[in-house]
Specification:
Elements (H helix, E strand, L loop, with lengths): L9 H29 L6 H9 L4 H8 L6 H26 L3 H24 L3 H27 L1
Helix pairs in contact: 1-4, 3-5, 4-5, 5-6
Length: 155
């Protein structure tokens, strides 16, 4: 049986921890959206979703832009997307912690996708928080690419 070894790189540990936090946040958002979708007659969508829509979340803003009207069915679909994102980020975090190359590849791929979505949103409506998140995403993705190349070249 193969022994489990954790990464010793502090940068990777920090990124894994951030991904773990983001996975819990995505699962939390999925839970909130699911609850709202199932209780549509009791609540006003605009009032309940205002804090979520004003937080400059790249993925949520992009997903909502595809739908013309927010209904309970749309909220349920968005909740499923966020649940999947939360599970993906959780898996990426575990892969990074266990020093697995698939964790790095997946994190790099989602980082690139996130970067392009952020660039698109900034081009549509500039905001400083979104620009800061874009810069952080580029730095994290670049660091992961650098570490992956460094690991591959040393083997």
């Amino acid at each position: 049986m193969k022994e489990i070894s954790f990464t010793k790189d502090r940068g990777i540990l920090l990124i894994a921890f951030l991904k773990l936090l983001r996975s819990f946040l995505a699962i939390g958002v999925a839970s909130i959206l699911y609850y709202i979708a199932k209780n549509t007659g009791k609540y006003d969508f605009n009032y309940l979703l205002e804090p979520l829509l004003n937080n400059q979340d790249v993925i949520l803003t992009t997903i909502i832009s595809f739908f013309e009207v927010l209904s309970s069915d749309v909220l349920f679909k968005i909740a499923l997307i966020f649940l999947a994102l939360g599970i993906l980020r959780l898996c990426e975090s575990i892969g990074l912690l266990l020093n697995q190359s698939w964790g790095s590849y997946s994190s790099i791929l989602t980082g690139i996708i996130y970067t392009f979505l952020a660039i698109y949103l900034i081009s549509q409506n500039f905001s400083w928080p979104l620009l800061i998140l874009l810069i952080i995403s580029i730095l994290i993705t670049g660091y992961l690419i650098f570490k992956l190349i460094e690991t591959k070249s040393s083997n």
